[in-house]
Design a protein that fits this description.
76 residues, mainly alpha, Helicase associated domain-containing protein
Length: 76
């Protein structure tokens, strides 16, 4: 499996998680920690300009979906 295939598999797994759970992966739940670490590392690379352009487009879709499902404080 190439690096591109691994990245795409993790992307699809994270997208599926967001669609099913309507939230980002948690760092506190052991089963979700790998997805959360991938998310943070990818976002860090994107912000540093080290992410491939085609991956930036895909990751921005993921960020948009996460923003759509963002937790809203019930007391505000």
């Amino acid at each position: 499996m190439t690096q591109d295939e691994r990245w795409m598999a993790r992307y699809q797994e994270t997208m599926r998680f967001l669609q099913e759970n309507h939230r980002k992966p948690s760092r506190y739940v052991a089963e979700e920690r790998d997805l959360r670490n991938w998310w943070k590392a990818t976002k860090k690379k994107m912000n540093a300009g080290e992410l491939k352009p085609e991956r930036v487009v895909l990751f921005e879709k993921l960020l948009a979906l996460a923003e759509e499902n963002k937790h809203v404080n019930q007391y505000v």
